[in-house]
Amino acid sequence: MSSVCLLILCGVPGAGKSTWVQHFISFMQTLNDNLGGTMSNNCPENDSDFGERENKKATSNHYEVIHIAYDSLIDEELETQLIETSRNHSEEKNESDWKLCRKVIVAFVDQLIEELLSFEFPNQNFHQIFTKTDRVLSILSKNPADCIPLVEKLQIAFDDLVNRQMRKRSGSVRWVLVVDDNMYYASMRYEYFQIARRQMTGFAQVSFPVDLKTALDCNQVRNRHVDDSVIVDMFKKLEMPSSENLWEKHTATWTHKSADSESFFKVLDLIDEALRNPAKQIEDDAESVEESRVICSTNVLHQADIALRRILGMHLKETKESVKSKAERSRIAALCNSARLQILEELRNQTLIIPLFETKELNFENEFIAFLRDKFSQKLTALLG
Length: 385
Hints:
By secondary structure, this protein is an alpha/beta fold.
């Protein structure tokens, strides 16, 4: 059994993830307070069956929750900085900056788990977490010198966030690391599963399915309002956890608006199951095939997106020379982007299949781009009417 479980949250902004975490943390604190003691009046909705269910969980173990919220790490100042960068650079540059932030946070979570697994209770009742920027910089593909300011800013935020949540505790502790972000691509969640497998920790997920209108309405009352267009775009791209993915077997779906204790106990049961059966190194062909499928799917989508952006750029360049009306050029540009997104969505849903080209790299690249250019042309012609 592992002492650490990664709990990944998945859902668009406005789905209720952060609100759910606050109720979950309160529930877990109440559970800890009740171990061997008297039931608190602070249990969720003061459920009458809380004491009975709690007694079944009453062991020498305490559950400590560390809430790793991307919104807290990428604060409004940093977000403004990234948005400002996007105005002065290409879309690819802005995308890479956001990806860099996420990659750094993933690396810090990896280090945090390593620290937690090294704890020895009761001799170490408290421990300060200090992540190391040099380890993170060494794994980044960009020039490390260019990344230092961003990495150091995220390091300070991460260390402060984690250390504020650490508690003095004796006895055995089960750590639950709640990673709170949208995680709309399966590949984003898979990065954390790879950490869990390498560190042999528990891995579980909670998905938050919600209709677009509800997400947009809830977004209006969020402390940090997200542009509606971001939610609409993310909603289209959302890849919810699938039972077809072996690594997503420990997944719960949150559909309740109320924070009732029974639902939280089900999530806790899921966490315990993940702790009893931590992720392990690949041992059988089924898991090997599954990993290859995820990696292959992610790589094809990534390469297709890069190729389609180039195709779109070339088309817009030709349009600029042949179409004089600025309004018409803007309309065509919007339709070009719609064509690109439609193709990516079809590839993601496997309604559009990439043909088997020759394996020689040059031939594959040429035929791959020619295939996408043809599909792009067909989509754009249909959209233009």
